[in-house]
């Protein structure tokens, strides 16, 4: 089972990087927790991913540094990189904790550096027009 759980998590990061993450990758009762948003449902988590991706015209790419699996759990060390709509380069490091059930993600906890998000993502979300600014500043 750990090998298929590894693949489920690798598929998650591939879909996350390609902008093709879908509800079908998760159980219907999936729960999520992130450093800046706390707990959420599957639908709220997916909406947050979609909002985040909208800030990266060329995409936000995730790379997996390591995966460790035991039972239904998979720990992933990962990094993301991308260019924001304002032209700035974004990079963050993560530790994800997954629980897998029937080859789908039943829960995910996403730990990352919140300062990078506060410094680079929040200003774009708080732009006066309500929309992210276009082009470098």
Order of strands in the sheet with the most strands? 2-1-6-5-4-3
Low-confidence stretches: 130-137
What's the CATH topology label?
Nuclear Transport Factor 2, Chain: A
Q: Number of domains in the coordinates?
A: 1
* Name given to the CATH architecture: Roll
Q: What Rg is obtained from the alpha carbons, in whole angstroms?
A: 15 Å
Question: What's the order of the H and E elements?
Answer: HEEHEEEEH
What's the CATH class label? Alpha Beta
Query: What is the strand content?
Result: 35-45%
Q: What's the helix count?
A: 3
**Total number of beta strands:** 6
Helix share bin: 25-40%
Biggest pleated sheet: 6 strands, mixed
The best one-word shape is: globular
Structural class: alpha+beta
Distance between the termini: 49 Å
Mean pLDDT: 91
Question: Can you offer a commentary on this structure?
Answer:
It contains 3 helices and 6 strands. With 137 residues, it is an alpha+beta fold. The chain has a single domain (2-123), classed as Nuclear Transport Factor 2, Chain: A, CATH 3.10.450.50. Strands 2-1-6-5-4-3 form a 6-stranded mixed beta sheet. The longest helix has 17 residues, at 2-18. The protein is globular, with a radius of gyration of 15 Å. The protein starts with a helix and ends in a 12-residue tail after the last helix.
């Amino acid at each position: 089972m750990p090998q298929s759980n590894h693949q489920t998590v690798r598929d998650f990061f591939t879909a996350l990087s390609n902008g093709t993450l879908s509800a079908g990758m998760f159980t219907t009762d999936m729960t999520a927790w992130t450093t800046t948003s706390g707990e959420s449902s599957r639908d709220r988590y997916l909406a947050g991913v979609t909002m985040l991706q909208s800030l990266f015209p060329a995409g936000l790419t995730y790379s997996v540094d390591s995966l460790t699996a035991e039972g239904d759990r998979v720990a992933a060390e990962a990094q993301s990189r991308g260019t924001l709509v304002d032209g700035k380069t974004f990079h963050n490091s993560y530790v994800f904790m997954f629980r897998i059930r029937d080859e789908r993600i039943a829960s995910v906890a996403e730990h990352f550096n919140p300062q990078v998000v506060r410094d680079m993502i929040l200003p774009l979300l708080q732009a006066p027009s309500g929309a992210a600014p276009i082009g470098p500043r």
